[in-house]
Description:
The structure holds 2 protein chains of 2 kinds. Among the domains of chain A are: 267-521, no CATH class; 529-559; 602-676, no CATH class; 732-932, no CATH class. Chain A is mostly helical. The longest helix of chain A has 32 residues, at 154-185. In chain A, the strands form 2 sheets. Chain A has a two-stranded antiparallel ribbon with strand order 1-2. Chain A has a two-stranded antiparallel ribbon with strand order 3-4. By secondary structure, chain B is mainly alpha-helical. Chain B has a single domain (2-113), classed as Orthogonal Bundle (Helix Hairpins). Helices cover 68% and strands 0% of the residues of chain B. Chain B has 4 helices and no strands. Chain B has helices at residues 2-20, 25-45, 67-98, 109-113. In chain B, helix 1 runs antiparallel to helix 2 (25-45) and helix 2 (25-45) packs antiparallel against helix 3. Chain B is elongated and about 60 Å long. The mean pLDDT of chain B is 87. The chains are: A mainly alpha, B mainly alpha. Chains A and B meet through helix 26, helix 27, helix 28, helix 29 and helix 30 of A and helix 1, helix 2 and helix 3 of B.
Amino acid sequence: MTLFFAVLTPFAGAALVALASRLGRSHAARTAGAVTLAALLWLAPSAHLPFNGTLLIQQHDWMPALGLNLAFRLDGLALLFAGLILGIGLLIVLYARYYLSERDSMGRFYSYLMLFMGSMLGIVLSENLIQLLVFWELTSLSSFLLISYWQHREEARQGARMALAVTGLGGFALLGGFLLLGHIVGSYALSDVFAAGDLIRGHPLYVPTLLLILLGAFTKSAQFPFHFWLPHAMAAPTPVSAYLHSATMVKAGVFLLARLYPALSGTPEWFWLVSGAGLATLLLGAYAALFKHDLKGLLAYSTISHLGLITLLFGLSTPLAAVAGVFHIINHATFKASLFMAAGIIDHEAGTRDMRRLHGLWKFMPYTATLAMVAAAAMAGVPLLNGFLSKEMFFAEAAQISESLVGGWLLPALVTLAGALAVAYSIRFIHDVFFNGEPVDLPRMPHEPPRWMKVPVEILVVLCLVVGIAPSLTVAPLLAAAAADTLQAPLPEYRLALWHGFNQALAMSLIALTGGAAIYALRRPLFALHEHSLGRLDARAVYNALLGALFALSGWATRLVDTGSLQRQVFLFLAAALALGFTPWLDSDTPLAGSRTGLPLDPVSLLAGATLIIASLATVWLHRQRLVALITIGVVGLVVSLTFVKFSAPDLALTQLSVEVVTIVLLLLALYFLPQHAARERDPGRVWRDGAIALAAGSGTALLSWAVLTRPYDTIAGYFIDNSVPGGGGTNVVNVILVDFRGYDTLGEITVLALAGLGIYAMLENLRLDAPDRDAAGRAWNRDPYPVIMATLTQLLLPLALLVAVFILLRGHNQPGGGFIAGLVTAVALIVQYLAHGSAWMHERLSGATQPVIAAGLALATLTGLASWAFEHPFLTSTFGHLRWPLVGEFELASAMAFDLGVFLVVVGATLLILVNLGTLHDSRITRKAHL
Amino acid sequence: MEALIALIVGVLTACGVFLALRGQTFPVVLGLTFLSYAVNLFLFVMGRLAIGVPPVINAAAQGYTDPLPQALVLTAIVISFGMTAFVIVLALKARAELGNDHVDGLHSEEDAAR
């Protein structure tokens, strides 16, 4: 479970941090630091395993029926990434404490950061592909929240949206890719996927799978042509840029390439797609970085370029290139994070990131300048620093591969050019900012930052140096473990050392260093040329045009089906339903009536049926006189209840009868605010048209009912009837189905009811309606609204009514009744009190707080379900027993009764919430606050 | 008897459909109530008609009617009430915001009269 808890810790920590921030600004940072340390501690006991070559897999059942398990995996590659995520995360937490200003919300920032940390940790520790994807999407979401942290800035919101759109699209493609992969392999476990490498590469679906997975990886790691979101994501606070957009999240894409390397690599498709995208990104990023005037813009494009480099290495598909790729992941994370932090310090202290204004800062912040210089030298690939080592390996591999390719000289030439550009923009970063004359019009007088803001940069820079000077003493074991688990094969021969003798790679390094210096010396004419040519191209314009076209398309599609008129929509819907319903009858020669013998018709039923039909037609005929229509529809409801009585459904009859009462009260209350009479239909044609549709629909349902009712059928009712008493402990089968067999459905239904009640409450909040002071005939309302006789009588009846409700609730399991009916009866009893006395009188005696009742009901029903877990049974398993009470005799107690009590409370609460709030709408004597 | 029930379902549906197509909110709510009656009755009678055999286990019972449609319809009745309440309050809200009771949420009386 340790890996699971390591992933869970930051998620739980996110809530903790948000709470801690209420105690004070630094508490949020301290809590975040503690959470990160705690996650590290969960990993610590297993951290030695990958070095021994031991693979740790921890599995817990999640949805075993779907073959989905919560499965975590700790191997070298996972350990490397987890170390980067938590280690750099810790430094970022410290740095951000000093970076964020007084106006920024600490709690929100650290909360989001913890969410991101947990998601990222989840990606790298996942053994199951689907689970990996869930965390993958979570990083997109938390990254969105972090980029848009300064919500008041438009560029932050736009950048966040763009990042989410691009990475979200990639995540979607990745899901497709993983599903295909799972289909090919027959399992989503990484171990199975690794074992099935040959099967995958030989499968006809290999190319689509590869394309979809690469789409996911490339969008996440900002590979060409999806690179454009990353520079815009720089609108985020700098700690976020340092953490997400250089050290960790953008590495998720290359992590995926490394993770699936054993399964997918080694084919020509992989080689050309991956190394092609990598090379293009490497060159484009390095070129664009040189011409950025924004400090963070330069670093963003440099990050894109380095991600391209890593992608290219994995694309080359040789074991040594993969080792170099893993090595460069480590090195880039250290020097780029420290450079971002240095850029953040400069921005923080000088008030601008524009390199046309920042000059000569060496005088003001020599210490920061020294740190930045070391890190920039690592980025340029200067010897004695870590960047040099992995870049040498890269050059060597590029030279090696080129021998076996047609036109192979091109590859070393291009990567050397990219190296030279990297040197040039690194020099620019240092020379422009710290030297090159005097600062131009800075908003603030720059000075060294607070002590603790420099510590994270110092640590990372020391790492760059130590790894660069003595690689075999420091990083070698971790690199070996990570690379071995990337390859899932024995490691190739390689030597981590500063000096490999005079070889092609060294020559390329030397050319890159001198070439870079030359490019920087020629920067003025180059800048002018760039401004007039490629500088005008902007991938964002293409993105915006695409987005605009997409919005236009969806707008058009929406207008096509949605005319904005409910009447028209309902008409179209009914016409389509009728067409679909009647079509099968056209070419069917089955007789309409079946063979089942029906029940004889008795005069009483005929009379009731006639009453219902007449009342229905009267309602339609009189619907413009709304009060009269309400009375006639009440008659209809009554006869429907009688129908249930007649045909052996006492529960339904009771329910329908009590619902009828509350519905009529509800409609009466609403009618008070609606016009009493409606205008006559202006268009007689429409009446005929609607009449025809109504007639068709009515005949359709009547014929259908007739056809079904005259046919015999098979039922599954036998099971419920047989098991009701032995399995559910109740003789009322309908109630046992509701609270036991299908208890989960009922839980959902009372939730819907509660939501409807709350929705109504929300709609009625702050609603101001003008009620007329006279009725339709022009008479004033009666000023004595609460008749004394009714008030007295109902008061006497209330205990009786409540007793009936309790009786119905208690006997519900065995006789007609139950929570729904008892709830409605209680609600009706209380509503009558409201009608007789008015809400002011009621609220003096009853708090009128209905939301707690609903909440208690839902909680009770859910807890009854959860309680069965304690006895190791599935959710909502019911149990029952018999108690012998003195005097009362034997009494049955079923856990389903507690559930039914929950149903009862929700029904009472929701019904009262709806009716009481509507009733008090016009009552100015009660403030809404009083019954909240 | 089956024919009568089929006729009742048909009439309730027809009334519901006609009222649901009206232009003002109140008749539409009445129409939805009619449709709930029709649908609930239709679902209920899918268990076929049976007299005097309620699904309550009893040693003296001669048989039981199908309890499953009854359980389905019981919750459907309560949910229908929730829906009716929601729609009618929505109608009130629309009237408060727009000043008329047309279903299309027209913004003025002239629009509503069109």
